[in-house]
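[agent] plan:
  1. take the single chain provided in the ticket
  2. run structure prediction with default settings
  3. attach structure tokens to the ticket
  4. add a short note for the reviewer (M.T.)
[agent] executing step 1
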Amino acid sequence: MTFGERILAARTAAGMTQEELAKRLGYRSRSSIAKIECGERDVPRPLIGELAQALGTDPAYLLGWKDNDEGTPPPASVADDDGQLAAKLGLMPVKVRRFPMLGEIACGKPIFADEDKESVVMADMDIKADFCLRAKGDSMINARIHDGDIVFIREMPIVDNGEIAAVVIDDEATLKRLYYDRPNNVLQLVAENPRYAPLVFRGEELDHIRVLGKAVYFMSSL
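[agent] step 2 finished; step 3 output follows
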């Protein structure tokens, strides 16, 4: 069996649809899963561990290194017989938790902050974040944040100058580097793309600004 066929077998054994697996991994649609199963996309090593965790199986099975006696996907294990599978692969143990997905955030012109409390993203539990947002646009590409990436946010009312923040302007949200000139009461939201001019707010305009928190991690789609 190919790697993709083993993903399909493990998903079928778990009674999971492509949509459900995609959601567990934080993807927008099932198309990425379909391409993996068809062998149309390469899978980086860190994702193998995430796939095994989501499917409740062993990364060694997905890699074609072992089957159980019935030839079906074995349950997840942390190590092989000599206890060194984690060290060999650099994949396990993978500990994950659920992060609430609160809609999209603009990397460009601010967009309406659409909150979707029903969605969650499974990601490394060591990420020190409270929720995540999906990036939309290209204004943060020089910070390696691209359209469709998932950005993890640690909730806080203000961030240090130069840090990337999720900011709500009235009811619209954007992701930018934040610079606050306290003596002059001027706030600048600066893109990481020279095509976009800074957004500048002064005086009473700041009453319409709310910092959601600091961007601490991002996860790119395949």
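[agent] step 4 note for reviewer: The longest helix spans residues 3-13.
[agent] ticket updated
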